[in-house]
Amino acid sequence: MKVIRPHDPRWKELFTVEAQSLRAQLGQTALQIEHIGSTAIPNILAKPIIDIVVEAASLEDLEAQTPAMVKIGYESRGEHGIPGRRYFKKRRDGSGVGYHVHSFARGSTHIVRHVQFRDFLLLEPDVAQEYSALKQTLASSTGVLVDDYVQRKSEFVGRVQRLASLRFSEAAE
């Protein structure tokens, strides 16, 4: 069942532990490991899923690590709708938290998109609260999300991604 909850400060710690496990299994294949998604943003509603982005030297390196990911409890889902991604899903642990690893080759615009979205919401708490309020409208009083949750939040996410891209490209100049 897909539900949203108030932010849990343990999510940051759970990410750190999981990132260490990923680093131990993936070794030098993992060039970068980042906590992304709503659980990375304090004080907003989120699904209890720790989203992680892994940057690797190549897709071939990632695919060679599939057995290592399976060894630590992940299920390989291939591209799962995003060309150039290798997606891994780990079922919920005893804390009720699940893990989704979105892996891409070095230089993928998807890595930039995910990280910029997170960073923009961290820098703009009002926008983060707007996102949280939108999520609340997409859930029942018990937090159960509507079936078309992703589709119904896509306009907001797209708008924020465009704003983030502008902000961070101007900052780089």
Question: What do you see in this structure?
Answer:
The chain is built from six helices and five strands. It is of the alpha+beta class and 173 residues long. It has a single domain (10-172), classed as Beta Polymerase, domain 2 (2-Layer Sandwich), CATH 3.30.460.10. It has a five-stranded mixed β-sheet with strand order 1-2-5-4-3, sandwiched between helices. The longest helix is centred in the last third of the chain and has 24 residues, at 149-172. The radius of gyration is 16 Å and the shape is globular. The mean pLDDT is 93.
In short:
This protein is α+β, with helices and mostly antiparallel strands. The chain has six helices and five strands, in the order H-E-E-H-H-E-E-E-H-H-H. Helices cover 47% and strands 18% of the residues.
Task: Give the C-alpha Rg.
Answer: 16 Å
Order of helices and strands: HEEHHEEEHHH
Largest sheet: 5 strands, mixed
**Head-to-tail CA distance between termini:** 44 Å
In terms of structural class, how would the helical and strand content be classed? alpha+beta
Poorly predicted sequence stretches spanning 5 or more consecutive residues? none
Question: What proportion of the residues form beta strands (DSSP E)?
Answer: 15-25%
Number of E-state strands: 5
Number of helices: 6
How many domains would you count in the coordinates? Answer: 1
Q: What general form does the structure show?
A: globular
CATH homology superfamily name: Beta Polymerase, domain 2
Q: What does the average pLDDT come to?
A: 93
The level-1 CATH class: Alpha Beta
Strand order of the largest sheet: 1-2-5-4-3
CATH architecture: 2-Layer Sandwich
Helix content: 40-55%
According to CATH, the fold-level topology is Beta Polymerase, domain 2
